[in-house]
Automatic annotation (TrEMBL):
SUPFAM superfamilies per UniProt: HlyD-like secretion proteins
Stretches assigned to the Multidrug resistance protein MdtA-like barrel-sandwich hybrid domain: 112-287
Domain CusB-like beta-barrel: 307-347
Stated name of the protein: HlyD family secretion protein
Amino acid sequence: MRHEFARSRLPTERFAPTTDRRSSGGSCCLEKPACPIRLENRSPQKGAAMIALFVILYTFGIWLFYIKLKVKPNPINLAVATVIGFVAVSAIVILWQFSAPTSGQLVVSRYTIQIVPQVKGPIVSLNAKPNKPLKKGKDILFEIQKDLYEIAVRQNEATLGAAQQTVTQSEAAIKVAEATVTEAVANAAATKSELDAKNETNEKSPGAVSKIQIIQLTDRYDAAQATVAKSKATQDEAVVALEIAKQNVDLAQANLDKSKFDLSQCTVYAPADGFVTNWQVREGAMAVPLPLAPMGTFIDTSTVDIVAVFSQNVTKNIQPGDAVEFALKAYPGQVLKGKVDSIIPATGEGQFVTSGVLTTPDAIHSSGKFAVKIKLEDESLMQSIPMGTAGMCTVYTKTGSPFHVISKVTVRIKAWMYYLIPF
């Protein structure tokens, strides 16, 4: 699995508040040390000269004291000389570790993608070869039988066509219903006018129109009113039917889109620039969209993460952007360059898992180390460095540059030792 790394850190604080991108949140913040170590900033050449000068002066002092002045060695002066040398060497080592810390725990990490198909079916073509370079979206990994998915596409195309025809029919039905309503309203209006005229005639000349005619006209008017109501109900039904038909078109279109997507997923392409490994499939095998049973592992070579582990006390002077030199076992004799990308102010040893079991004192421990993410300077090597490559590195902080020369020598010696020593 891919590791996620924190990328921000304030240069004047021990840790900046950070939030893991995969967790729900949380932060930690420690105060700035009261007395941070600050060493004089000199060039590496001056540092080498200073160390060489100390060795020369110390050797000269021993020669002058015991050989030139012929002072007889005794336990006291031997102890003094030893203490002076020990203190001086210890001071150099301490200042060296804080100004140019070295780590023997370095590993190259990459993204990995579990290959799981989106659709189910037998594999008819296996194109990708294990551990061979592939291009994102261009090179095919394998192909799944398409027959059933092509049939599904044709079925959904037919369903969509039928749904669209239903919409056309519903629109025509609405027009017929509107015409029927118009006709019914006109008939009702005509009947009402005739009835009103007969009633008015009877009022002026009683008996001019028989009661039977009035009753018949009244019945015709009531029937016309009922026809209007029925026509309007039919019109409302046609409108509802049209809405349902349109929804069926949308549903048929969605089913068609899904079937086309499933058909496209029968051809599986490389998800990134890289190569496939642990290739467990053969032609004729059944591909199943089950995450618990991946068909292989894809290694993404478009990016690379180089992570080294340092003791927590020496990371106080490491800042993003500091120069880094490192040697890899896969490249013996070579010293590669990079820069500090970020310091990861968290370890799994500080995480407590929620459970019904109480924490015991033995479960609380820490190795006292933090990881530092390094960005490779030579991008041309990004795709070629093998995942899992081990090595060592040194970080040149902005403090104590006179002592950087020691680490420069150390990393070069280690690079050449990788020719001889397999660890």
